[in-house]
Amino acid sequence: MTNYLDNFKGALLGFSLNSSGQTSAVFESLYAGLCTGLYKVFAPLTDEDKALARQPTDPLKVSLALGIADSAQAALVFESQILLGHAVRLMCLHELLPEDLMSAVIDFLPPGGIFDNPLRAKLLAAQDYLEERQTLVDNMLAGDLELDLLEIDRRNAKRCGAGANIEEAVAAAFYAVTARKDSFEEAITVALAAGNPTLSASICGAIAGAYHGIKGIPAEWLDKLEIRAIIEKTARELHANSFKTIEKDML
Length: 251
Known about the structure:
This protein is mainly alpha-helical. It has a single domain, classed as ADP-ribosylglycohydrolase fold (Orthogonal Bundle), CATH 1.10.4080. Helices cover 71% and strands 0% of the residues. It is built from 13 helices and no strands. It has helices at residues 5-19, 25-39, 47-54, 59-66, 71-93, 101-108, 118-141, 149-159, 166-179, 184-191, 197-212, 219-223, 228-250. Helix 7 runs parallel beside helix 9 (166-179) and helix 8 (149-159) packs across helix 10. 45% of the residues are buried.
């Protein structure tokens, strides 16, 4: 069995490159979702897991649990936490290609909810931007256009939302991962153009890091991360505990 330790390290380091020093409830919640997703890398999700993830959340209970005053935003943070965990698990396993990730996470979300699911709406918009981008790429390959795709991707990240809301940051992050699927560095560059660059880049870094692994992250970026040793230690422990869990289940 492949141990995926490089992917564990990539996900945690990728998240921490931009979130290092962030102590808000939003970042702590997303980090918890990231760790949960990694913990489940070796254990296929059960129907009960999927049902729990898709059921509408009670905003008041979630607000109290996360310590976020705005109950609407708290519920969206909770959904984003689940979504990030699911995404990093899929990317670690390479169960699908990055270009299929957007559809996979949209399908994983609750179909509606008390807010008509703003997170779903933003992800669907980001998916539309990706389809527009593919049309441009096709025209470029046909020789009909000469465009700066990186600049287009930056603009599309901004189109995902100019504010600080979690759903905008999530949409921009998933757009960046998908549009720049071959490069961790380029994905982060695109995510940093979003309305909430720190949050978008952290989410993007976790997902892209899970896919590319630690070897896909520029060494000079990692060298500047003061808590790198602590993060890698956490990744090793999480990987070991996850591996022990699946071995125990197989007995």
